[in-house]
Amino acid sequence: MVNDAQRNIDFYAGVLGLRLVKKTINFDRPEVYHLYFGNGSGDPGTVITFFPWEKQLKGRIGTGQVGVTSYVIPDHSMEFWKDRLQNFGVKYIQTVRYGETYLQFQDPDGLEIELVERADGPLNTWSNGEVQSDAAIKGFGGATLISAQPNKTADVLENILGLECLGQEGGFLRFKSEAQLGNIIDIKLTPSVRGLMGAGTVHHIAWRAKDEEEHRKWRDVLQEKGYYPTEILDRNYFKALYFHEEGGILFEIATDPPGFAVDEPIEELGQKLMLPSWLESKREELEKTLPAVQVLMKGER
Question: Which pLDDT does position 297 carry in this prediction?
């Protein structure tokens, strides 16, 4: 959740070098953009999405939310990112967790981001000016969850979603999935303030289902376990369902297919405002309402 669409694009595409893979609207609030950033082809495990709306109030990161979004960068690229963040005036701190070094900073709206070097996962072939493949963000490393009931959240991760518990260290409980990207989830165990939804906070975190059949099975499992999942919703680029776990965090399960090239060629991703069929008749009106935005290449400021 952020306030300014252009500022959001400038940071995630211009500074972090991600590709704007889809420019569409919030299906529930068409006057608000829904922006997707990921690797060159918008592969699952790489995509962060935003609802930029100037009128929303500032939120507060706390319990019932994702606290930190982790990104994986290639081995030996940390110094590149230290220099790049410094050149763009982004203040960072360096920390160590589970034997890994993290570069932690905030985006312009206050969202907590961190970079960590890992060998796993394919290189990102998308380049944006100075950010070339040998340093480009590969995709998600994972996330840190701030739960109102850490033991309940841990139970969902391990016994429902099937992640492996790797143990506790320094106020964090770590879990790992079988994937190459987005596979490390830390639960913060130390007390935190209650989270307040608004700009600068994460609305939900999404998990992958490989296809619609697996997706339906997940919904059945969640119903059986008493988690009251939503109906399966068509988001054009994936099918989605949502449920709250007992620590207050909103989880989504989304299908890998059909993907972001379903309505525009992969080489043209993110260039045009894409609308669902039921809103195409309102294109002219929406294009006047939504703020004009552009991707500035080569790290322009």
Answer: 65
- How many Cα atoms occupy the beta-carbon half-sphere of 150 within 13 Å? 18
Give how far the C-alpha of residue 26 lies from the chain's centroid of Cα atoms, to the nearest Å: 16
Nearest to 71 by CA among 227, 234, 187, 184: 184
DSSP reduced 3-state for 288: helix
pLDDT at position 129: 83
Please report, for residues 5, 30, 292, the alpha-carbon distance to residue 279 in angstroms, rounded to integers and kept in the order given. Answer: 21, 8, 19
Contact yes or no for 77/100 (Cβ under 8 A): no
* 55-257 maps to CATH 3.10.180.10: yes
**Bridge partners, residue 128, by sequence:** 131
For the chain, give the number of residues. 301
Residues (pLDDT < 70) of the chain are 297-301
| Dihedrals phi, psi of 252, to nearest 5 degrees | -120, 145
* Separation between Cα atoms, residue 109 and residue 113, nearest integer Å: 11
Q: Please report how many Cα atoms fall inside a 13 Å half-sphere around the Cα of residue 285, on the Cβ side.
A: 6
Measured CA to CA, the distance from residue 30 to residue 26 in angstroms comes to 5
Strand order in the sheet with 172-176: 92-97, 100-106, 112-117, 65-73, 139-146, 184-188, 172-176, 164-169
| 164 phi and psi angles, rounded to 5 deg | -95, 130
3-state secondary structure of 132: coil
pLDDT at 267: 95
